[in-house]
Amino acid sequence: MSLLEIEGLDLDIHGEAILKDVSLAVQPGQIVGVIGESGSGKSMTAFSVMQLLPDGAVCRGRVTLGGHEMLALPEPSLCRLRGNEVGMVFQEPMTALNPIQPIGAQVAETVLIHEDVSRAEAMARARKALERCELPEAKFPLSRYPHELSGGQRQRVVIAMAIALRPKLLIADEPTTALDVTTQAQILRLLRRLVDEDGMGCMLITHDLAVVADMAHEIVIMRQGEVVEAGPTGRVFDEMRHPYTRALFEASGHQPERDETPRDVPLLQVRDVVRDYALPRTRLFAPQEHFRAVNGVSFEIAKGESLGLVGESGCGKSTLTRAILGLEEVQSGEILLDGEPVFTGHRPNRDVRRRMQVVFQDPFGSFNPRWKVGPLVAEPFHLLDDPPNGADRDRAIAEALESVGLAPEDRLKYIHEFSGGQRQRIAIARALIIKPELIILDEAVSALDVSIRAQILDLLADLSARFGLTYLFISHDLSVVRTITDRVMVMQAGEIVEEGPTALVFDAPQHDYTKTLIAAAPVLPERGAA
Amino acid sequence: MLRFVLKRLVSLSLSLVVASVVIFLFVEVVPGDPAAFMLGLNATEDTLAALRDQLGLSGSLIERYLSWVGGMLRGDFGTSYTYRTPVSEMIADRMWISLPLALYALTLSTLIAFPAGIWAASKRGSLADVSVMGLTQLGVAIPNFWFAMLMVLVFAINLRWFSAGGFAGWDAGVYPAMKSLTLPAIALALPQASILARVMRSSLLDTLSEDFIRTARAKGLTKRQALWRHALRNALIPVLTIIGLQFSFLLAGAIIIENVFFLPGLGRLVFQAISARDLIVVESVVMLLVFAVIVVNFAVDIAYAAVDPRLRVRG
Amino acid sequence: MTETGFLRAALRSRSLVLGAVLTAVFVLAAVVSFLWVPHDVAMLDIPNRMKGPDGMHPLGTDHFGRDILSMVMVGARTSIAVAVVAVGIGMVLGVPLGLAAAARKGSLLDEVIMRGNDLVFAFPSLLIAIMITAVFGASALNAIIAIGIFNIPVFARLTRGAALSLWTRDYVMAARVAGKGAARISFEHILPNVTNLLIVQGTIQFSLGILAEAALSYVGLGAQPPLPSWGRMLADSQTMISIAPHMAIFPGLAILLTVLGLNLMGDGLRDLFDPKIRRVGR
C-alpha cells in the first residue's frame, strides 16, 4: 500500500472548482515531483493532504495517508497527524517563522505538541533536528531569532521543524523558489539526504521542470486543477504523452531565434565604476562607514548586442542598473552611452537618458493601478523636450502596443484587466515608445510562467532584430541568460568575476564562482536522453 | 537592550526639552505681557512690574526659560497669582485624583478590551463577533462626558448606588476613594476599551493570516494553540501603540470627566486657572500632562523591545 | 473594479449604507436649518421651559423654553463646520508633509517632520485647546485650530507610511527612469494611490472632530453663546439632569448617531477599498 494515496480528489472553494479528479500516490522513500504553472492547483493539492484549506473549501474523493482517511478525520485527529506523520515546508522562508520567537523554541514546539517530554528533552531534540539540517550549534544556537538568519538558513529551520519527529511524509511546496540558485542546490541536496536517511515519502511541488528532473522518482504534471500526465520521471521525459507536457518541456528550454553576428561598435561603456552606500552609524560619533555595492566594474556593450549579467541577490547588479540608468550618481569611474556621460555635473543627462529604458521583474508592481494603459505607456515621453501631442501621441501609443502584440484599443483599459504576460508586454511597449537604443531587462521574465516566458523571449528577440535594440539582460536564472545573450558577465560581491561569450562561459567556466553557479543550476535532461 | 533603553532615554529628554520650549514660548512670548493679561486693562505700571518680578518675568528670554525649567526640576513651579500659593502644592493635591483616575480607567479599558478583542477574533464572523463589534461601534461613538451624565442619572440619581459627584479623599480610606472614582473611570474607560478591542481584534486577525501561523498549524497546533502561542504576542505590537496613545487621551479625558463628577482634580484646577487668567498654573499643568504622556510613550517603546527582538538590535 | 460594480458593492455593504444614511440625516438637518427650523432658537419662552417631548416640541424644550429639536438642527451646523474645517487643516498641511517626508526618507527634512509629529502627539487636542484658550480666549475658531493642529500629524504619519511602501514599487522606478522628479512622482503616482486611505481616515477624524468639539464646548472652551452647539447644550443640561433628563438625552443622541454614522461609513469604505480577497490556488 502507498504511503499517500489521493484518489479522485475534487476541491471547490466557495463553489469554484479548484481541483478536478486529482489522483496520485507517494511511496515510502520516494520523491514525487508535482509540476505545474500558476493556477494548476498544485499547492492546493498539498493543502488538501494537510487539510489546511482556506475557509469555504469543500473536498470530495479520498486522501489516504498511512492508512488514515484524511477527509473523514475530525480536526483533533488531524492535529495529531500534522507535524507527526506529515511535515510541510513552504515557499517563503522569510515569513514562515514566528519573528519574535527563538528558532530553538519553534523547532522544539513540534516535539512538545506531540510527545509528553520535558522542555529540556524537546530542546535537545530540536538541537538534533537543526544539526541534521546542517545548522551547527556553534554558529546557530537555539537562541537565535529568525531575523538573524538568511533565507536559506530560515528554510533549514522550517525543514528542521517539519522533520523533527521523522514524519512518514514530507510535503515541500516550492521550497526553493524564493532562494538563490546556489542556496537552492543546497536545500534540494538536504531534502534528498533527509528522504534517503529517514525513508520518508516526499511530495515536491515546483513550477520548475529542471528542479525535479534529477531529483524526483515520479512526476505528476498538473494544469488547471487536473493531472495531465504522471509516471516515473524517466518515462515521462522520454515519452511526453500529453501535448501539455511537451509544451511545458519545450517552453522551459526555449531557444528564441536570434541573429548572432558579432558586433563591435560600442554603445555603452562602463569604466571602473564604484558605488558606495553610507551605512547607518552604529554609535553617535562613530566614523561614517560605507558599504561598497559596486567595486571597480568595467565593461562595454556593442550596438545591437545582447549582454547578460548574472549574479545572486545582493551581488550589486541592481545598484549597477540604477547607476547606468542615471538614477544614482557613482562615486568614481564613468558611464558613457555613445561617448556621452549619463551624469554631467551631478545632474542626470537627459540626452542620454532618453536613449535607454528599462523593463522590471514584477508585472504587478510595475504599473500605477490608477492610470490607464495609454498614459502608462506614454510616460517616458516626459524625457523628450518636445513630446508628441493629440493624434501623434495616440499614434505612437498604438504603434508601441502593436509592436508587442497588443491592440491599440488596449490603451483605454486599466492594468488590472491584463494577465501577467500581457503586463510584461505593456512594460516592453513603455520601454519602446521613445525608441531607445539600449533596453535594460531587469529580471524581466523571472516572474513569468515558463510558457509565457518563452513567448516574451521570442518577442524580445524579434524586437531586437526589427529595431536594432541593444539589451543588457540581468537575471539570476542561468538557463534564460544562456538562450538570449551573446556575451555574459558574472557578478559577485560587487565585482565582475568572469566575462566572455555566453557559450564559452557556460561550457568552460574559468572562475570558481562561475563553476559553482553553473553546477548549482538545475538542468533539463536532453529530450529523450533521460 | 541597554543601548536601546539609553537611546530612548536620550530622545525622551530631547522631547521634554522641546515640549517645554514650545509651552514656554506659547505662554510667555506669543501674547505679549502675561502680567498685563493676568491683571487686565486697569493695572498700573507698578503692580505690573511687581507681578513680573514675582513671576520671574524679568530678565532675558533665555534667563526666564532657564529659571522656569530650573525651578520645575527642583519642584518649584512658581507662585499662582490668584491663589498666592506655590503652584507645586496646588498641583500635588490635585494630581492624586487625576492620575489615579487615568490609571484606573486604563486598567479597566485593558481588562475589558483584551478578552473582548481576542474572543471576537477567535470566533470571526460568528454572532459573538458581530455583537461584540456592534457594541464597540457604539462605544467608540459615545461621548464620554455624556455617558458619564447618563450614568449619574441612572446609578446615582435613580438607583443611588453611587454619589453623584465629589471625592471622598484618600484620607477616608482606599475603598471610598476608589468608589468615588469608579463611575468616572468607567465613563472614561468604555469608549477607549471599544477602540482597543477593535484594534486587538483586527491586529489578531491580520496576524492569524500570516505565513507563520500556517507553519504552526502544519506542526500540529490547533487553531486555539496557534492563536495563543504565536498570534497573540505578535498582535500585541500595534495594540501597545494604541495603549500608549490612549493614556494621553485618558489624561485629557479625565480633565473633562472631572467636570461631570465635580472631582477636585487637575481639570478643575486648569479651568479655574483659565477663567482667572492664571497662566502660570495653566503652563505648569500642561507641562506636567505632556511630561506624563512622553514618559508613558517611552515606557511603550521599551515594552515594544521586550515583545519584539528585532527592535532590540536596531535600537 | 468597474464603476457600476463599485456602486453595487457599496450598496451591498450594510454598514456603509447605514452609516451613509445616518450621516446624510444630520448633514441634511444642518442644511435645512439654514432655511427652516420648527421654532426660532433665539426666542426665549420661559413659561414653557424644560417641557418634555410633546406635539409642539417633539424633543421638548430647554431651561429657557427653546425648542430642543431646533437647537439640535442648528447645533449640527457648528459640529459639522468645526469638524470639516479641522479635517481640512489636517489634510491640507499633513498630507504634503507626509509626502515630502516619504520622498526624502531618512533626510533631515524627514527627521524634522517626524519628530515634530511626535511632539504634537504629546499634546492631546484638549491640551492644545487649553493653551490656546488660556491665551487667546475661548471660541469656536480656536476649537477648530486646536483640533486641526492635532489632525496634522495624524495625516502626515498615515501618508508617510503608505507613501514609503509605494516608493519601493517598480512603477515609481519607471517614473524616475522617465525623468520625473520627486514632487511630480508624489503627485502623479503616490497621492492617487493613498487617496482611499485618506478618505477612510478622513471620516474617522471627522467623527473624532465632532466628539472633540462637543467635549470642548461642554467645558466651555469651544463654541460660545449664542452659537448653539451640542456640547454646550449638554453642559447646560447637566444641573437639570434629574428634573429634565430629555435635555441631556437628545443632544447626546445626536452626537452618538452622527459619530456612529461616520464610523460605520468609514468602516464600510475601508472594506470596499481593501477587500482583502486572498487569492487561493496557484
What are the defining features of this structure?
heterotrimer, A: 530 residues, alpha/beta, six-stranded mixed β-sheet, 18 helices, 22 strands, 26% strand, B: 315 residues, mainly alpha, 0% strand
Topology:
The complex is a heterotrimer of chains A (530), B (315) and C (282).
Chain A: E1 4-13, E2 16-26, E3 31-35, H1 42-50, E4 57-65, E5 68-69, H2 75-81, E6 86-89, H3 103-114, H4 119-132, H5 151-163, E7 169-173, H6 181-198, E8 201-206, H7 209-213, E9 218-223, E10 226-232, H8 233-239, H9 243-252, E11 266-278, E12 290-302, E13 306-310, H10 317-324, E14 332-337, E15 340-341, E16 343-344, E17 347-348, H11 350-353, E18 356-359, H12 373-378, H13 390-403, H14 420-432, E19 438-442, H15 450-467, E20 470-475, H16 478-484, E21 487-492, E22 495-501, H17 502-507, H18 512-520
Parallel strand pairs in A: 3-8, 3-9, 6-7, 7-8, 13-20, 13-21, 18-19, 19-20
Antiparallel strand pairs in A: 1-2, 1-4, 4-5, 9-10, 11-12, 11-14, 14-15, 16-17, 21-22
Helix pairs in contact in A: 3-4, 3-5, 4-5, 5-6, 6-18, 9-15, 13-14
Chain B: H1 2-28, H2 34-39, H3 45-55, H4 61-73, H5 87-122, H6 127-141, H7 144-158, H8 174-208, H9 211-218, H10 223-261, H11 266-275, H12 279-307, H13 309-314
Helix pairs in contact in B: 1-12, 5-6, 5-8, 5-10, 6-8, 7-8, 7-10, 8-10, 9-10, 10-11, 10-12, 11-12
Chain C: H1 3-12, H2 14-35, H3 68-103, H4 108-121, H5 125-136, H6 140-167, H7 170-177, H8 182-218, H9 230-237, H10 246-273
Helix pairs in contact in C: 2-3, 2-10, 3-4, 3-6, 3-8, 3-10, 4-6, 5-6, 6-8, 7-8, 8-9, 8-10, 9-10
